Amino acid sequence: MTLTLLDWRRQVAALYAAARAATDPETGWRTWRDGRDELFAAHPDSPLGEAARAAFGGLPFAGYDPSLRFEPVVEPAEPARLEIPTASDGVVPFERIGTVELGAVGRLDVWWLDSYGGGVFLPLRDGTAGSSTYGGGRYLLDTVKGADLGGAGSRLVVDLNFAYHPSCAYDPRWTCPLAPEGNRSATPVAAGEQLPPGGAWY
């Protein structure tokens, strides 16, 4: 851990705060997208490897689709636990705290990071995985790292336009929790971050 990583997390949190405060969701999404491009291009903790960063021209995204923004109630679910081994952080534990219904995508499990700091974790591996998006899936929310679109009470704002790739999609030096069975859908989600031309960052 370094202070540059702390700065990265502060800037990511600030981008999500700006998205939550925006006058409309698409404006917030554009602010978030532009900020991510700046971080990936210039920040010392960019997940891009050196070669990818040298050729970086922006993260490819599908256009904004307002029909893919949801504010579902987190419904109760049977307790379940995930313990995901990583190369750098040991075993990362998650507890299932409920499910959300996201239109044609269906019902997805909502997880809580069961270690210091905690946080909501909502990954998705949809029908585009392995073709136009990373094969392991993308993240919708990861609040311990600032990826939080808000909500009130038992509701979460889940906007599929904000789907983004985990760090391991950009460089093999990273290891990431990926979408478990309850976070997989055969429905293609033609929104959010896409793979670059050629299909991979490395």
- Main pleated sheet: 5 strands, antiparallel
Give the domain tally.
1
Proportion of strand residues: 15-25%
Helix content: 10-25%
| Computed CA radius of gyration, to the nearest angstrom | 16 Å
Please give the order of strands in the largest beta sheet: 2-3-4-5-6
The number of distinct β-strands equals 7
Q: Number of helix segments?
A: 3
Order of helices and strands: HHHEEEEEEE
The span between the termini is: 24 Å
Quaternary structure: single chain
Shape: globular
Structural class: alpha+beta
Low-pLDDT parts are none
Average pLDDT score:
95
What does it look like?
This protein has 202 residues and is of the alpha+beta class. The chain has one domain. Helix content is 21%, strand content 19%. It is built from three helices and seven strands; from the N terminus they run αααβββββββ. Strands 2-3-4-5-6 form a five-stranded antiparallel sheet, with no helix packed on it. Strands 1-7 form a two-stranded antiparallel sheet. Helix 1 runs antiparallel to helix 2. The radius of gyration is 16 Å and the shape is globular. It starts with a helix and ends in a 43-residue tail after the last strand. The model has no long low-confidence stretch (mean pLDDT 95).
